[in-house]
């Protein structure tokens, strides 16, 4: 319909929370554009439509996870083979966390994530997988009981933190490092409180800890107390005990 012939275009226009003036005033109304549009489907790829998709992912994630018991997020490499020591450690960690009264949340993929989910399921606990849409998507592993797939990494990472009381981080690659440093940043800046982070595998994580201490902290890019934001261990029982102690279990 557009603007009726002869109708005066106002100098100021309010479209919901948006204010438009002078040459930025649009003809017609939002309802007109909604009801009159037809044919072109490019609108589903516009940023305003993406906002709705993002909102829907938050709603679905919150709805699926809102009734979870206390949980711990376990991270680690999707490339960890089933016969690797880290895989066996992941299974033991998943079991021990359930026995300590926690649900287990992972990224839902193979490798170390599958191991933790397997341990949680074998201990008859709640096994959660938060997947992500990727070009090489492999789907959720078979040990996931509650699964949610996300399009957007930042929505998924919100769920990892919101519904977990702490992190256990097995050896992993760039995705694992991303999740680890996201958590460290949130704790360091006080965005989350009482949030234990345990790195499992002293040989694997030792070089990173050395670099943080001898380079990042030594050059004044972080404080020495930031090394207290996480623990490093090779012992499954100690990892679970650290999580249990810091969340008041």
From TrEMBL:
Entry EC number(s): 3.2.2.n1
NCBIfam families hit by this protein: Rossman fold protein, TIGR00730 family
Swiss-Prot/TrEMBL keywords: Cytokinin biosynthesis, Hydrolase
EC top class, as a word: hydrolase
Catalytic reaction equation(s): 9-ribosyl-trans-zeatin 5'-phosphate + H2O = trans-zeatin + D-ribose 5-phosphate; N(6)-(dimethylallyl)adenosine 5'-phosphate + H2O = N(6)-dimethylallyladenine + D-ribose 5-phosphate
Compositionally biased tracts (Basic and acidic residues): 8-24
Coiled coil: none
Region (Disordered): 1-39
Family of the protein in this entry: Belongs to the LOG family.
The protein, known as: Cytokinin riboside 5'-monophosphate phosphoribohydrolase
Pfam (any one): Lysine_decarbox
InterPro entries: LOG, LOG_fam, LOG_family_nucleotidases
């Amino acid at each position: 319909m557009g603007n009726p012939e002869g109708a005066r275009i106002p100098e100021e226009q309010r479209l919901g929370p948006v204010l438009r003036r002078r040459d930025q005033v649009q003809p017609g109304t939002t309802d007109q554009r909604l009801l009159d549009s037809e044919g072109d489907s490019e609108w589903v790829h516009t940023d305003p439509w993406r906002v709705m998709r993002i909102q829907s992912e938050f709603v679905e994630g919150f709805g699926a996870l809102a009734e979870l018991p206390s949980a711990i997020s376990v991270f680690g490499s999707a490339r960890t083979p089933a016969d690797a020591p880290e895989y066996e450690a992941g299974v033991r960690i998943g079991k021990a966390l359930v026995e300590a009264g926690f649900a287990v949340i992972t990224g839902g993929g193979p490798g170390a994530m599958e191991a933790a989910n397997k341990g949680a399921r074998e201990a008859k606990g709640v096994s959660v997988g938060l997947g992500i849409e990727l070009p090489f998507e492999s789907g959720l592993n078979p040990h996931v009981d509650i699964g949610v797939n996300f399009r957007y990494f930042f929505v998924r990472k919100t769920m990892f933190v919101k519904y977990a009381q702490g992190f256990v981080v097995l050896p992993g690659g760039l995705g694992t490092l991303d999740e680890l440093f996201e958590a460290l940043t949130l704790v360091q800046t006080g965005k989350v409180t009482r949030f234990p982070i345990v790195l499992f595998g002293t040989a694997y994580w030792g070089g990173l800890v050395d670099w943080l201490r001898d380079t990042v902290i030594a050059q004044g890019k972080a404080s020495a107390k930031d090394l207290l934001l996480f623990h490093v261990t090779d012992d499954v029982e100690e990892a679970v005990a650290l999580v249990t102690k810091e969340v008041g279990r």
